[in-house]
Amino acid sequence: MKKLIALALAIVMVFGLVACGAGDGGVKTYKVGVAIYQYNDNFMTLYRQEIESYFKSLETDTVKYEISMVDGKNDMGEQTAQIETFITQQMDVIILNLVQTSSAEVLIDKVVAADIPLVLINREPLGETDESYPGIVNNDKVCYVGADARQSGTFQGEIVRDLPDQGDINGDGVVKYVMIQGDPENPDAQYRTEYSIKALTDAGIAVEELVNQVGNWDQTKGQEIAASALTQYGEEIDVIFCNNDGMALGAAAAIEAAGRKVGEDIYLLGVDALDECVEKIKNGTMTGTVLNDHIGQSHKAVDVAIQALNGEAIEDYYWVDYVKVDAEYVNQ
Ligand code: BGC
Residue 267 forms beta bridges with which residues? Predict the structure, then answer.
């Protein structure tokens, strides 16, 4: 009798497993490929961790998401191979943070040819006139989720414009600044560089660029550039603008090492609102930053990916707002 029961149980279990695998009445597992431009990036680390945990939070007893996340190591060849592997593995949807926006077309074409929905994030490919990208508007299953980098630049500039001395901390009549740029291939870097200064000149403020260098979003490079600018220009510098908080953290260290004091003889701005930088704004060692909402963006990207893998229609662009973060904001 015991043997019979054991046999019956075994049969039930086998059928159960088969049913699960088949997906009818059992568990349906979707395969999601996520390609990140580089794991070694402060902001994208928060972003990718949130993609994973948000997917997990949306799982149910019957719907699971199997996430394959890969590190492009800032190498376009590596990322192209990763996308080709995702296609071979027949992902149900792909989320892609491009290494190079100039390679967007090639990758979009590959994924579209395989009929896999594609959600581009964080690095926006721009069309000829800096506007809508053909590969996004012409393909029903391709979209971009991000934040408008022009807004973040404008907000940085407005924080400076709204200071009592409008950024001219040494009082020589001109806002002399150092610009530390992210990867210039990335529209976030181009727009933040341009629009932060535009917010000042639009307000009729006189500006002069002392240094403009590429720090590639990297903390160590930000520190090196700020340190040499401080050595070269000293008290002449009113403001150090960094295209992101990673580089601003580096610049903050250089400012301290040079014996300068934020808010007393220099201003320092970043973008992202990393926790460390919000702390610095609270204690006065940074002037301001702009919240780059990785939670809002990652959740939107995941929601849209799920819509797409369910065969629902998706829009071309989804925008998440930036938020100005200055002393007033953090003390609220
Ligand atoms: C962020 C940077 C980050 C970059 C990566 C930007 O939106 O502000 O911190 O390095 O994205 O592409």
Answer: 239
